[in-house]
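Support request from a user on the community tier.

User writes: "When I paste my structure tokens into the form, the page sometimes reloads and wipes my input. The last time it worked, I copied everything first. Here is what I submitted, just in case something in the input itself triggers the reload:"
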């Protein structure tokens, strides 16, 4: 892998981590299609790019995060403030992803990170986009979610361990199914993703620390992380603006076309 390839993967991660099209699927497909060495970098390089996108979302939502940190004492009061309630929703919504990661991550990493699996899940979630746009009105803000609804949205986030589901796609669909406005669903999705992405990076980082990286590999990881951070920040900014006035249909069609292209490619090779 060269620095150029690392930068390209970082760009892919920065775009697809926040757009509802599945970052893991795109990274897997890019490696498979171009013949890049997936075994040498695999999940560890994904995590380096995730650290970049984590930086992007921390910077973009710095005011929300600061408000939640300041509201920690209120979390344990009889009437928590809106930032404190949002913090509770994120804590509760994170639990399913933690459990799923502990129980199933190894099996998913060894068995499901394939182009075929990505093609199927890309198509299935695309159909969910079409359905959720039509079945309910969307008028709620994320602070109005109940704890039970936060748990179910967290289950959708946990399902995104399977490549092709898309963490943002799955959680936005679940949040919209409970009546959240598109932009509010995206906001909650990105805030909910902070502990999940951080946890995944820490777990993989422990293993990476044990095996170590050469100076050349560390440089490639840094390139991917910085690139994904820069691209990710602007993706978050303009995606939320887009959702304020547009449906998910364009992303659904993109996922279906990509899934079809993957199937054609798999049949041809």
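"...and here is what came back when it finally went through:"
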């Amino acid at each position: 892998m060269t620095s150029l390839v690392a930068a390209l993967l970082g760009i892919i991660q920065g775009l697809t981590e926040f757009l509802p099209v599945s970052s893991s699927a795109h990274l897997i497909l890019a490696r498979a299609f171009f013949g890049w060495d997936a075994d040498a970098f695999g999940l560890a390089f994904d995590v380096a790019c995730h650290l970049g996108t984590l930086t992007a979302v921390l910077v973009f939502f710095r005011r929300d995060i600061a408000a939640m940190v300041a509201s920690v004492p209120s979390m344990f009061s009889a009437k928590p403030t809106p930032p404190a309630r949002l913090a509770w929703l994120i804590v509760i919504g994170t639990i399913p992803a933690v459990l799923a990661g502990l129980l199933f991550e190894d099996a998913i990493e060894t068995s499901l990170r394939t182009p075929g699996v990505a093609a199927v899940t890309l198509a299935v979630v695309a159909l969910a986009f079409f359905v959720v746009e039509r079945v309910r009105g969307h008028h709620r803000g994320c602070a109005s979610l109940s704890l039970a609804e936060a748990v179910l949205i967290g289950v959708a986030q946990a399902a995104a361990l399977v490549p092709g589901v898309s963490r943002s796609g799955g959680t936005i669909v679940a949040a919209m199914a409970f009546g959240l406005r598109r932009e509010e669903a995206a906001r909650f999705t990105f805030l909910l993703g902070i502990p999940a992405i951080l946890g995944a990076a820490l777990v993989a980082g422990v293993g990476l620390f044990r095996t170590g990286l050469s100076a050349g590999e560390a440089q490639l990881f840094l390139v991917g992380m910085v690139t994904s951070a820069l691209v990710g920040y602007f993706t978050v900014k303009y995606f939320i603006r887009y959702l304020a006035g547009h449906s998910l249909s364009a992303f659904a069609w993109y996922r279906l076309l990509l899934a079809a292209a993957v199937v054609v490619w798999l049949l041809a090779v």
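Agent notes: The reload is a front-end session timeout and is unrelated to the input. Residues 189 and 248 are 15 Å apart (CA to CA). The chain has eleven helices and no strands. Escalated to web team.
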